[in-house]
Amino acid sequence: MGFLDQISAWWAGFCGDVYTNIIADDRYLLYLEGLKNTLLMAAGAVVIGVLLGMIVAIIKVYAADNRKLRPLEALCNLYLAVIRGTPMVVQLLIMYYIVFKSAPPEMAVGVAMLAFGVNSGAYVAEIFRAGITSIDRGQMEAGRSLGLSKNTTMRYIILPQAIKNILPALFNEFIVLVKETSVAGYISIRDLTKAAELVRSRTFEPFIPLIGIALVYLVLVMVLTAIQRRIERRLTAGDKR
To answer: Which residues, in sequence order, are CB contacts of 173 under 8 Å at separation 6+?
Structure first.
């Protein structure tokens, strides 16, 4: 068999594998459902993580000057230590099988969203805290000298500047969450990775399903990274005005 015949035979086999693993029996619908669940969990988790992280960060910043908040600060430190010190998969399993053990299967995506959000919040909290503390203390003093309360100064002067500084890091957290959702299959959620595993178990051909979803993840990350860079350029351009 000549070289061209070998290439032709390989191409024919490759096309057959693509048909078997993606088109046959409407298997592409599994991938689409998995992609939808992946993006849904990541988007929901980043919202939960940002809200939770912001609250924790503000408590820790306020506790530095307010001894009454020390118990809350201790609780926040415990939360950060536990979440950052245990694996994401273990947290997901605890959330699904212990915290929400009586939840129906159709709520699995919501439970996973909460688990990923709680995990993300621990990292976002440190991002927010670093962003807030990076703002010169004179900004707070200037706000207070104008008659604004500490809360009002934090809300309208400190936080907007901090969010602008940490927006790239927050966007990076969303990119990380997209990839972290690949463990959702541990609680039987049909995410992108689980969809590929289902197809592989039916066709006994791992190459197309696994390489295929790897490429999908790669494209997602590349698109999100391009959006992140565009946001950073616009922020940089705004600073130069």
So the answer is: 46, 49, 120, 123, 124, 127
